[in-house]
Amino acid sequence: MLISMNWISEFTDLSGIDLKELINRFTLSTAEVEDVYEMGKNIKNVVVGEILSVKEHPGANKLHLLKVNTGDEIVDCVCGAPGVTAGMYVPFAKIGGQVGDLLIKEVILAGERSCGMCCSEKEIGVSDDNSTLMVLSKSHAPGTDIKEFMELEDVVFEVDNKSLTNRPDLWGHYGIAREIACLNGRPLRPLELHDTKQYAGLPRVSVTVEDTKKTYRYSTITASHISRKFSPTVIKIRLTYCGMRPIDLLTDLTNYIMLELGQPMHAFDHSIIKDIRVKTFDNPFKFMTLDEVSRIIDKDILMICSADGKPAAVAGIMGGERSRINENTTSLLLESANFDSVSVRKSAARLGIRTDASARYEKTMDPEMTVPAVERFLKLLTEADEEVQITSSLTDVYVRKYNSITIDFDKAFVDRYTGIDISTDFIIKTLTALGFGVNHNGRNFSVAVPSYRATKDVTIKADIIEEITRIYGYDNIKIKSNKSLLSPVRHSSAREDEYRIKQLLADRFCMNEVHTYIWYDSKLNKELGIETLPNVRVINSVTAENDTVRATLIPSLLNIVSRNTVLIPEMSIFEIGRVAEGFKEDGLCRERKKLGIVIASREMTEKQTCFKMKEVIESITCSIKNCQPNYHNTDISKNCNYVHPVNLAVITINGTAVGYFSCIHPKVRDKIDKKLNIAFAEIDMDNFTAVEKGTIIYRELSKYPGIYIDYSFLVDKEMRYEEIQRDIAAFQCEYLKAYGVIDVYEDDTLLKGKKSMTVRFEFGSDERTLESKEINEMTDVLLTILKEKGIQLR
Fold first, then answer.
1. Which CATH class is domain 197-398?
2. Per-residue pLDDT tens digits for 478-500
């Protein structure tokens, strides 16, 4: 955004101030300035010239021979501009002068001597109109330097728009002037407005707001007897310097007010638009906008319509071709409105256009500005065209108001956050200059946030600290050590578990941590044959394939495997991330944190990857919870078609289900890579953290040797080791130190309906070496107990 210092000086005194230093301070305190331009410096020795006579050039049809009075002499000039007549006052560049990059010299044109140049508006930088000469008022005598009555010399600086995203009040010169006035400690002059209360007795414009969610405020008034078509020179110059093209008086004034106050406005031809309806339509239709492009308007786009329902403008974005201001317009209906920022942004994106108006509405403009903008417009209009008549009272439909914000704090809060002692007087002076209402009682402050800062900017005490310190000057704060009470950060058990799991998986198993998006990649899931259940969806997702929030991490991790299997045939990855499992009763998502692990290998068999995953799970539970996990059969293949129909199990710790692990379903594996064996596990971190840690029992090592005995038992094929473990626990023997399964053998031909399970027993004593006879007696008792339970020695 381009800012004119001449325009700023209309609202605050800049005399005696180094403008470049001021702009630098503005960068440090308010918003980043990208560049500074010195305008009008290349216009030199251009004066008011009176055309005394006009003759046709004898040898060139389009050229004229002029006699021009430059105040101190009468000179000859060859001119090719159309419509030149005697008696015109025009800008005249004298010999030795400069117009842009052109140095003026005496030249011979088409055989005739020319001692200067008559200038158009474009040539002296007033506008981009180069069609004819610029006509000056006869109130200035010939020979008067045009810079004496034209603001051609100006300092214009460009502000980075991104730095103004949260400052809707700075999208106009008046808001910038408020900042500069505060930085300089000088007062901000009030706006000169046209009092609309005097028209209270006139008829009102009928305004019907049908969509009250997208419209905050709509203000309008009408005027007639408009005779002047072109803007005053000062308005043209300021618009041109700020990057806008002067068009006609009414259009220029709407743009001028937008650049001055930040409030977008629109002027309708009142002969076409009599009353206003603000609405959306049920069915799409084509609409011709001012840029002469036919666009499709859908049901979500807010439209400004006439009373009969015919569309006249896209609300907050662009007017329509039908009701535009033209050269025959003598009456206008003025719109000054405030619309929902999200609605304007989405509409502009759907239509593929982004205007200066929509860019401002997207920043959440202050609805309190609509009426002052109308009154400022009328002030400038009536000054430019004295014949104008106001033909209606002000219609102001205020649909939705922002809540007023009051922030209370004390001086100690300011001192603690800034680290310096900023005086109470400075705090009051600064906040007052920025437009805040300040009530002060001793060391306590109660600050009322002005409406133009309360839409999205200043809401909490920390924002007030920022206002004080940025005006004080960050560069004025001396660097020093800060004294404050430090206390160690205590991590929650959940955070501690996450960190230890990540460290274990990375260090012991050389796994790579990944981070995936919180939504399913539906397109890739479909390619891999992965089916997911309906879950929380994102409304108006930018990408249709990514509109469903994930309920499990596994599809996301399998997507990574499928993308990398060609380059990385052996991979082990994990992620701790959030998922959403539907909605809670309060309507919010039921969020869970889960650990997903995937092992993919061409070298290991399916069985090896499965047991590798089992090893990983047991390492996690033993290291973190000091507990051995248990595994139970489950059937989740109905909900997860990517799990193996047989090789899967639920993981429990002390009776609490914490997750599951499985091999991949062959159909999904074949679509990823037929030669790749994949095992995966998913652990609910919330349930895992809730499990109590097992007590660690320390035992002194015996100095006497122990004895290890392996027994292979013949058991039913469906029997699990946990059942044998319970039966062994019934054997009370002080010398039995430990036991555990070391092998399982199955063969349908040799062991029909049965399987062989080998268990290793450790016997030992802390006081002596056990004798063989004692061992045999103990094992006989053990085998007898197991035989009674149907567990026979093979």
1. alpha beta
2. 877 767 777 887 778 888 999 99
486 token code pair? 């430090």
| CATH top class, domain 2-40+155-184 | alpha beta
Q: What is the mean pLDDT of the chain?
A: 91
Provide the phi-psi class of 782: left if phi over 0, else alpha when psi is between -120 and 50, else beta.
alpha
What is the DSSP secondary-structure string of 438-486?
EEEETTEEEEEPPGGGTTTT--SHHHHHHHHHHHH-GGGSPP-------
Please give the Cα distance from 179 to 546 (Å, whole number): 44
- Across the beta sheet with 707-716, the strand order is 736-745, 754-763, 707-716, 792-793
For 510, list phi and psi in degrees, rounded to 5: 55, 40
Tens-place pLDDT, residues 680-730: 999 999 999 999 888 888 878 888 888 999 999 888 888 888 888 888 888
Helix (H, G, I), strand (E, B) or coil at 271: coil
- Residue 154's nearest CA partner among 253, 7, 1 is 7
- Strand ranges inside 142-214, DSSP E: 154-159, 207-209
H or E segment and range at residue 381: helix 370-384
- CATH classification (class only), 707-793: alpha beta
Owner of token pair 């001028």: 256
Rounded to 5 degrees, what are φ and ψ at 725?
A: -60, -40
d(CA 682, CA 658): 8
**Does the pLDDT of residue 96 top 70, yes or no?**
yes
The span from the CA of 344 to the CA of 302, in Å, is 8
> Tokens 């799970």 identify what position?
617
What is the CATH T-level fold of the domain 43-152, as seen in this structure? OB fold (Dihydrolipoamide Acetyltransferase, E2P) (2.40.50)
> What region does 470 belong to: left with phi over 0, alpha with psi -120 to 50, or beta?
alpha
Distance CA 433, CA 11 (A): 13
Burial class (CB in 10 A: 0-12, 13-18, 19+), 699: exposed
Q: In sequence order, which residues have a C-beta less than 8 Å from that of residue 273 and are 6 or more positions away?
A: 306, 312, 323, 333
CB-facing half-sphere around the CA of 455: CA atoms within 13 A = 25
What DSSP designation does 40 have?
S
In CATH, the architecture of 406-473 is 2-Layer Sandwich (3.30)
Question: Which of the four pLDDT bands, split at 50, 70 and 90, describes residue 360?
Answer: very high
**Cα–Cα nearest to 458, from 444, 473, 442, 470:** 470
Q: Which two tokens stand for residue 502?
A: 């990540």
Residue 682 token pair: 């998913």
Confidence of residue 195 (pLDDT cuts 50, 70, 90): very high
Taking residues 96-119, report their average pLDDT: 93
Contact between residue 536 and residue 583 where contact means Cβ atoms under 8 Å apart = yes
Structure tokens at 117: 């140049």
> What pLDDT does residue 493 have?
85
Q: Is 773 helix (H, G, I), strand (E, B) or coil?
A: helix
- In this structure, what are the phi and psi dihedrals at residue 155, rounded to the nearest 5 degrees? -110, 120
- Sorted by where each begins, the domain ranges of the chain are 2-40+155-184, 43-152, 197-398, 406-473, 493-690, 707-793
Nearest by Cα to 221 from 438, 370, 31? 370
Rounded percentage of the chain residues whose pLDDT exceeds 90: 70
Question: What is the model's pTM?
Answer: 0.67
Q: Are 249 and 230 in contact, with CB atoms under 8 Å apart?
A: yes
Taking only the tens place, the pLDDT of each residue in 552-579 is: 999 999 999 999 988 888 999 999 999 9
Length of the chain: 794
The Cα–Cα gap between 196 and 692 comes to: 74
The CATH code of the domain at 493-690 is: 3.30.930.10
Is residue 700 within 8 Å of residue 750, measured between CB atoms? no
Give dist(CA 556, CA 548) in Å, integer: 12
Residues 169, 363: Cα–Cα separation, whole Å: 9
H or E, element range at 25: helix 19-29
